[in-house]
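Bumping with the actual sequence this time:
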Amino acid sequence: MVELDLQIPAAIDPFAEAQDSAGTKAKVHIRVQQRNGKKCLTTVQGLPDDFSYEKILKDVKKDFCCNGNVVDDKELGKVIQLQGDQRKNVQAFLVRSNLAAKDQIQVHGF
């Protein structure tokens, strides 16, 4: 008989890569989540805590004509939520306003 050495992959956790090891640059994660129908929600997580999330949200809402809020999650910390698919817009905004470098931003989604 022939023995097969198979490895069964474990479940993939989409937030596992957000847990950076100590000493490395923290990444800013921009994700899109499908709501119902064609509605979607953009989330931004991983910004440093010394930034004012409310001021960033105010500028983003004004620039992109969308609504949003700041959610304080126990596991993920503060997360900015925006209406619609704003991944490219938020990435350009963070680079333009020097809040994060382009190599620190990771865009997830479709």
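The tokens above came from a reply further down the thread. The radius of gyration is 17 Å.
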